[in-house]
Amino acid sequence: MISPTMLQLMENAYKKPITDVSRHRMSKEIAEDLINEKGDGAYLHCLEKLTNDTSNPRLWRDVLTYLDETKGKANESSSLL
Question: pLDDT grade, residue 11 (50/70/90)?
Fold first, then answer.
């Protein structure tokens, strides 16, 4: 049998949205530094962090998102030339 407290915790967990629109506060800066240091190797660096049981996988997923966004912006601006 589930206790009332546990039931309340479960209900609260199910009410939370699946995706969180907020991002880790340093992910953009890390992505920019990785691009400057490693170029396209920045993606590989993030994947290595994620596969090596990092203590903060959300950070590295956010960094990957910023890398994608940055690459998309660079591609958009170069296509306008």
Answer: confident
In a domain, 16, yes or no: no
In a domain, 17, yes or no: no
pLDDT digit string (tens) for 16-70?
Answer: 655 555 667 788 889 999 999 999 899 999 999 888 878 888 888 889 999 988 8
d(CA 35, CA 40): 7
Q: Are 24 and 7 in contact (CB under 8 A)?
A: no
Within a domain: 51: yes
Q: Which helix (H) or strand (E) holds 67?
A: helix 57-79
Number of domain units in the chain? 1
Does 4 map to a domain?
Answer: no
Q: How many CB atoms lie within 10 A of CB 55?
A: 6
